[in-house]
Structure to design on (635 residues):
């Protein structure tokens, strides 16, 4: 049963290899991509059920015992994220059947997507800090090529900014890992947690925590490190942007939560004002950037940043309810924000532009599209009874209980701003009379329509369902948060009974 | 630019270097060496041949598309990890033959993994070299 843990890594890797072998066979590559992501979703689902029933599952790669070998750990948090990854992978693969052109597929789009998923799954599962760094590099390499795929001038510009900043983050991360190894003599996360409980938290340890915080913050696009994100998210194909916004920045937040609950809980509490400040400013600046944007994809890129603030807020407040809210919010935002991106892609494809002033009057022609944009937009803004409302409710409630009124005020204020700019964008897209000089709308073949709208519809339904029936998922998230706040069970699952 | 010295020398060097790369691959089992350097030596051999005769001839000499070499290498490495799963052991666990083979001693899945790395590195390096040579 333990070997099940390896399959979220083996499936995307095998799919990437098969995709390479089928290099010039477009159809075969597509089927491999769909099959692999469907299988990944299935395996992650089984893993989640197993973890729910039997507690944390661990496995040792190469059968070398922890803390010497590389441990893979699945607790509720990581298996929930894996399920999200599988679903997002599947949706984006289906969407890209119609979205990517022949050239992009001929230079290896599908295998690259699988390598990206491999890196994401690896980061979620690993129980070793250095191994985490390696998975980050896997993600970085795949994402760089995906960003630059097509090789247009603006794409290169965005990709270079992205890579430069991410390399700086990797250097910080590596420095932090090296220092941590020097202080504790181990890199297994459970073993590190154990050592940290014995050590005096003065001198280098807070510095290491700060280094790691900065490194992961760059990856997650937290204020003041977010500027690479709007610079690179508006140029590549929309399917690529969707998977980036759904997974890459979330991996950063996942790792922040993991490391600061497991290894540095003391530093998380000591640094609470700073983390909350970063969270609040991330929300605010993201929202302000989005308000001023006339281009839909950039607007959504800033919206991604703004939502990251909410995820970080859960870590800042550092109570069980707050972390549960963060986890719920993360899953909600994966579905809702991706649906928004996918619909934006359809609009851009039909109207030939994503500049809001040049768009308008689409409601008459595409009422379904209008609904598919409005529902996730309201969900992201946090209007009941959609999924975003419950995530924000939990975060706000936790903030009030912890008497962190400033961040609560920021969260609520930014929600209003979010509602404003998303509804404003919707009105400009669908309600405003169509400009006289607007280009002719393009129509899509029925098959394309299905491939483009199917995933968007599915993700919107997920968001609506999570809103109407939040109870089961929220209970899981609460249990996951409990696990995070009691690292003893994690440590025991990895290292066995503590001697 | 055609150099008759290089063209003549590479006729002898190519098989020698390929043999040496195999030696490195097998030696890497217990001593310095291994798939990575072995693969680089293969790539160096074909790179020299390409320098002497051009990218077209180099590709012809290799017979197989370097990208395919990368894929096969990855596949072999992946399989070496998958074999222990069949025996119910964790991914990538080393399995060893009980009978010692001549020259290399007990063979096992790590050798298979190394073979994968060997092909992967050779394919990757040659892919880069051919692409650069064809562009210039």
């Amino acid at each position: 049963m333990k070997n099940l843990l390896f399959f979220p890594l083996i499936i995307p890797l095998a799919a990437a290899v098969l995709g390479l072998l089928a290099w010039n066979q477009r159809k075969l590559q597509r089927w491999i991509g769909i099959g692999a992501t469907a299988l990944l979703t299935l395996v992650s689902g089984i893993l989640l059920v197993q973890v729910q029933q039997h507690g944390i599952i661990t496995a040792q790669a190469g059968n070398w015992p922890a803390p010497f070998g590389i441990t893979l750990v699945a607790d509720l948090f990581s298996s929930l994220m894996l399920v999200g990854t599988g679903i997002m992978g599947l949706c984006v693969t289906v969407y890209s059947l119609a979205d990517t052109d022949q050239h992009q597929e001929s230079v290896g789009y599908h295998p690259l997507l699988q390598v990206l998923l491999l890196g994401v799954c690896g980061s979620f599962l690993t129980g070793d800090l250095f191994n985490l760094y390696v998975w980050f590099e896997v993600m970085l390499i795949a994402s760089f090529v995906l960003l630059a795929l097509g090789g247009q001038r603006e794409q290169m510009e965005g990709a270079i900014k992205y890579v430069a900043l991410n390399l700086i983050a990797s250097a910080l991360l590596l420095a932090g890992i090296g220092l941590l190894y020097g202080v504790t003599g181990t890199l297994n996360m459970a073993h590190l947690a154990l050592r940290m409980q014995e050590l005096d938290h003065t001198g280098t340890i807070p510095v290491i925590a700060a280094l790691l915080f900065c490194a992961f913050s760059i990856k997650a696009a937290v204020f003041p490190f977010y500027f690479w994100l709007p610079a690179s998210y508006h140029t590549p194909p929309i399917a690529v942007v969707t998977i980036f916004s759904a997974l890459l920045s979330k991996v950063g937040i996942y790792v922040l939560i993991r490391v600061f609950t497991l290894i540095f809980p003391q530093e998380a509490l000591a640094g609470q004002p700073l983390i909350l400040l970063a969270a609040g400013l991330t929300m605010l600046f993201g929202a302000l950037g989005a308000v001023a944007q006339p281009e839909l994809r950039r607007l959504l890129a800033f919206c991604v940043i703004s939502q990251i603030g909410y995820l970080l807020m859960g870590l800042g407040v550092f109570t069980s309810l707050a972390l549960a809210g963060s986890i719920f919010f993360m899953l909600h935002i994966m579905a809702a924000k991706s649906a928004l991106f996918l619909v934006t892609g359809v609009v851009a494809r039909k109207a030939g532009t994503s500049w809001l002033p040049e768009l308008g009057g689409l409601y008459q022609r595409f009422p379904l599209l209008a609904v598919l944009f409005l529902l996730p937009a309201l969900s992201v803004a946090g209007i009941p009874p959609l999924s975003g409302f419950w995530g924000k409710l939990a975060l706000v409630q936790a903030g009030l209980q912890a008497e962190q009124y400033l961040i609560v005020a920021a969260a609520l204020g930014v929600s209003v701003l979010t509602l404003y700019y998303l509804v404003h964008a919707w009105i400009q897209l669908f309600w405003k009379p169509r400009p006289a000089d607007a280009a002719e709308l393009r129509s899509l073949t029925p098959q394309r329509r299905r491939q483009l709208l199917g995933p968007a519809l599915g993700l919107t339904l997920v968001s609506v369902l999570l809103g109407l029936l939040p109870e089961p998922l929220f209970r899981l998230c609460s249990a996951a948060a409990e696990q995070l706040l009691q690292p003893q069970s994690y440590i025991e699952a990895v290292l066995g009974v503590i001697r | 630019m055609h150099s008759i010295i290089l063209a003549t020398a590479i006729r002898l060097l190519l098989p020698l270097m390929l043999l040496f790369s195999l030696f490195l691959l097998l030696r890497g089992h217990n001593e310095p060496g291994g798939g990575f350097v072995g693969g680089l030596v293969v790539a160096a051999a074909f790179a020299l041949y390409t320098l002497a005769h051009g990218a077209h001839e180099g590709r012809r000499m290799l017979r197989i598309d370097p990208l395919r070499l990368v894929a096969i290498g990855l596949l072999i490495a992946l399989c070496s990890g998958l074999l222990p799963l069949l025996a119910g052991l964790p991914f990538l666990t080393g399995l060893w033959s009980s009978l010692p083979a001549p020259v290399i001693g007990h063979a096992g899945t790590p050798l298979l993994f190394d073979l994968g790395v060997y092909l992967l590195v050779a394919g990757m390096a040659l892919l880069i070299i051919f692409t650069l040579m064809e562009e210039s």
Notes: Chain B has a mean pLDDT of 89.
